[in-house]
Design a protein that fits this description.
The chain is α+β, with helices and mostly antiparallel strands. Helix content is about 50%, strand content about 20%. It is built from 10 helices and 12 strands. The chain has a 5-stranded antiparallel sheet with strand order 1-2-5-3-4, with helices on one face. A 5-stranded mixed sheet has the order 7-9-10-12-11. A hairpin with a 2-residue loop joins strand 1 and strand 2. Helix 1 packs across helix 2.
Length: about 425
């Protein structure tokens, strides 16, 4: 169900972005057509004014028919039924194009009756740097005697420059679409790897549990035999097998619980918990396992009440204390400090262990993450303890963080007062 929902969201998001991109491109095309039409209108107005001025001072009147003809997108001819000077034409063209705000390069040519061909006039650059060597062929037109032609060689690029906003917006949407597609492909790939990893872990742990259960049953039966009990060495070896089998079984259970929590959300059973009483029980159990450890608590009150899942809170405290002891190269000295304010409870686990470098601190709560060190290689584990702690804190809406102190590491949990 979740997969189908995720796929539907991905497809809908992709369709939406593609739809927006298509609409944007259509709007850009429409804007370009409008700019092209606007440019053509301004050119017609300017050339018509030039024609009128060329008729001024003559005894002939401007014909009723529009003398300006658009031959192609960038090519215009103007029929002047009267002789005119090239210098005057050049002057009028510059003035009229400037009036209508046409700021792109143009070139013009005039028909020469004597040579019966178009004579190249001039290339006028908008940047005031005319290309003297520029030459373009101007075709002749039938039935016209006195006329000139104007071409805009950079009209398309000029129009595109006027659409900077639309083009930038379209480019931005294309980038967003590419990032979206890349992100989706990455998510799908990571999802595939995550599923393969989870299936592998589930299959591996289940396959381990069956032979491990048989080993434990056989070892317990073996320990009860008179022959084993009579031999101190054999009894010791049997106890080692049982202890290590239980330890391995605990690791497998941890992995399975983690996999289960990934498959579905954990349901918290919140009750009012006395944090001090819970810590006393956890510390007592830890010191049975590590009798050489020194653990003390500092709290403003003998009773600190909060709303939490007692089972998971016990596991959190046990995991943090267990880690602090395992990653210590001297006699473990741990302080559990509680500061209670009106709006929150601050719980600090301060140890004198090997510490964590600043570059590794951001990753210690990641799943399967283990810091590569000599001590880490000596300690058995899968990198799931702190991942579990972080997950339970998140479910309770608590904040957890870690920082290195002068002699070890401090893990801090911030708990809103009277809230789970």
């Amino acid at each position: 169900m979740k997969i189908n929902r995720l796929n539907s969201i991905i497809v809908l998001g992709l369709i939406a972005i593609i739809g927006i991109l298509i609409a944007q491109l259509l709007w850009t095309k429409q804007a370009f057509n409008l700019e092209e039409k606007k440019f053509s209108q301004k050119t017609h107005i300017a050339l018509l004014e030039v024609a009128k001025k060329l008729y001024e001072g003559t005894n002939r009147e401007l014909p009723a028919e529009n003398p300006v003809q658009k031959i192609s997108n960038d090519y215009y001819i103007v029929n002047i039924d009267n002789d005119f000077e090239p210098q005057i034409l050049d002057y009028y063209l510059k003035n009229e194009f400037e009036k209508v705000n046409i700021g792109t390069d143009y070139e013009y040519a005039m028909y020469n009756c004597q040579s019966d061909e178009m004579v190249y006039g001039n290339y006028v650059s908008a940047s005031k740097t005319a290309d003297k060597n520029h030459s373009v062929y101007f075709p002749k037109h039938k039935n016209l005697v006195y006329y000139f032609a104007v071409r805009f060689p950079n009209e398309t690029s000029y129009l595109f420059r006027s659409l900077k906003f639309w083009l930038a917006l379209s480019g931005g949407i294309i980038v967003i679409l590419l990032v979206y597609v890349f992100s989706i492909l990455t998510i799908m790939q990571q999802k595939k790897y995550s599923e393969l990893q989870r299936d592998f872990i589930n299959n591996m742990t289940h396959e381990f549990k069956t032979p491990l259960s048989s080993i434990l049953i056989a070892s317990n039966f073996l320990k009860q035999q008179n022959v084993i009990q009579a031999d101190e060495k054999l009894e010791k070896y049997t106890e080692i097998i049982i202890a290590q089998s239980k330890k391995l079984n605990a690791h497998i259970e941890t992995i399975l619980n983690s996999a289960k929590s990934d498959n579905g959300p954990l349901v918290l059973n919140k009750t009012t918990v006395d944090l001090m009483a819970l810590l006393r029980d956890v510390i007592e159990n830890i010191q049975l396992k590590y009798p050489q450890s020194h653990i003390k608590t500092e709290a403003p009150d003998s009773h600190v009440l909060l709303e939490a899942d007692a089972f998971h809170l016990t596991n959190i405290c046990y995991n943090l204390l267990d880690n602090a002891i395992k990653y210590c190269e001297k006699t473990p000295e741990i302080t559990v400090k509680i500061n209670q304010k009106s709006n929150q409870i601050k719980l600090d686990f301060i140890d004198n262990g090997i510490g964590i470098s600043n570059k590794n601190l951001p990753f210690i709560f990641d799943k399967f993450y283990r810091i590569s060190s000599i001590k880490s290689n000596e300690v058995n584990g899968f990198g799931l303890g702190l991942y579990y702690v972080k997950k339970i804190c998140t479910l309770h809406h608590w904040k957890i963080s870690a920082q290195s102190n002068t002699n070890g590491t401090t893990i801090t949990i911030l708990i809103p007062a009277h809230h789970g």
